[in-house]
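Record copied across here:
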Amino acid sequence: MAEPVRVPVYSERNGMPSLHIFRETEDGTFARTAEQPFRGLKDQIEGIGEPVGELISRQSDRESREWGTPTVVPECHAAKSYYRFLREQLERRRFFVLLEPERTGHITRLRLHELKLKPNASQRARTLLAAKYREAVDLWTEHERERNAEQAAQPERAVSF
């Protein structure tokens, strides 16, 4: 199996929002980790919106897909790779999280919700959240990381007018 997929999962404890990272395991379930990468940004989070779809683990997806990651099935659109969906939404400055299920055990599907920030959240807090989000869910595959590093290492061409 490829590197485990990491997903941000939202829950509320005593009225306080909490975001944890869940990992997809080899048996196709999602398991909670101790990671809380957004801990310092809890006061910027207002809550979550209505469900907009669901995330299905690789092993639970009954259809054959072109991708090797879990599948996001939005309610009004075609299914997409988890990573492709998140990248498209991050470009629009939209953050999506999954809702922690009330039951425990073999979790193979999670409901997808948009994360709502407080109206007074600063631009700096939004930028920090985007950076932590990108890092926490590890949006780039190893190949993409290498390609990005190579592009960053290449000297910029001088432009003359």
User: Anything to note?
Assistant: Residues 6-151 form one domain.
